Each structure stands twice: as C-alpha cells, then as structure tokens.
Amino acid sequence: MPRNLKEEVVFTAIMAGLMVFVMTAYNVTLAQGFTNGLVLAILSGYPLGLLVAIILDLLVVGPIAKGLAFKYIINDYMRKKTVLIGITISVLMVLGMVTCMSLFGIAVEGELTGSHVLATYGHTWIFNLIVALPLQLIIVGPIARGVLGKMQQATANASDAAEAEED
C-alpha cells in the first residue's frame, strides 16, 4: 500500500497506465476487429482514457473503494495479512472502475442514445469485468505492488544509510 503522495502517484500511474492500455486494446479490438487501423485506434483512445481513469481512481473510485473496504470488509484477521487488504481493495477498485469506465467507453463511442442503452452498458460491463478482474489480480496488480515494494525498500535503505552516517 502506498504510504505517501509520491508512492500513490507512482502506484496509480503504473496501475492505471497498464490497465487502461490493455483494456483500451481489448475494447477497440472487440469493436473493430483486427484491422489495419487497430494500433492507431488503440493509441488514439489511450490518452483520454488514461486521464479519465486517473481522475476517477484518485478522486472517486479509490476513496470509495478504500472507505468501503476498511469500514465493512477488512477485519482484524485481514489487517494482519496485507496481501488480503490489497486483494480486497483491488477487487473493489476493479468493480468501481469497470462501472465508470464502461460508461465512459460507450459515451465516447456515441452509444448512450437509443432504446438499447442499458443492454449495451450491461454487455460492456460484463465483458470488461471478465478481462479486468483477472488482469488486475494476476498481472497488473503484482507488477504495480512489486515496483512499489522496491521503491519503499529503496527509501528504507536510504533512510537506514542516513541514520548510520549520523551515528
């Protein structure tokens, strides 16, 4: 878990950057198939998706997911196992981000009009969840937590070295 703003920014950048890239590639490929313009469509959709995802992560979904996790889900046993806290928050984050980003995706594609908007949203939500949840738990989450752990270890080592020099 990030312990300060710098760690939160790095962690969010890695998490959102990887998740948005893969999910953009997935959704664009689902929508248009393997066409000549696929790579360009993925790259052109990525920046706006990343910006929206970072804003949602930091200002909306993240605080709600963490608040719900610590208030209703995480118990004393789970507090002793930080991996359980991380998994719990990750699952809640995926549910929140899929909910918001699916809406964003159909809005960007102009699919928010017509009589089938709820069916379109439900289909998009399910198809995004079945990819985003395992992607987060198996690939992206461990990568982001690994980088964060190395960053925290380097900070701790630098702090220990500074204390040793003072002695």
Question: How do you describe this structure in short?
Answer:
The chain contains five helices and no strands.
Could you estimate the helical fraction of the residues in percent?
A: over 70%
Chain-averaged pLDDT: 93
Oligomer: single chain
Using only C-alpha atoms, the radius of gyration works out to 19 Å
Give helix and strand order, one letter per element, not per position: HHHHH
Amino-to-carboxy terminus distance: 31 Å
Shape: globular
Count of domains: 1
Q: How much of the polypeptide forms β-strand, as a percent range?
A: under 5%
Number of strands: 0
Q: How many helical stretches?
A: 5
Structural class: mainly alpha
Largest sheet composition: none
Low-confidence stretches: none
Would you mind describing this structure in some detail?
The chain has 167 residues and is an all-alpha fold. The protein has one domain. Helix 1 packs across helix 2, helix 2 packs across helix 4 and helix 4 packs across helix 5. The two termini are 31 Å apart. The mean pLDDT is 93.
Keywords:
single chain, mainly alpha, 167 residues, 5 helices
Topology:
Layout: H1 5-32, H2 38-73, H3 76-79, H4 82-108, H5 117-166
Helix pairs in contact: 1-2, 1-5, 2-4, 4-5
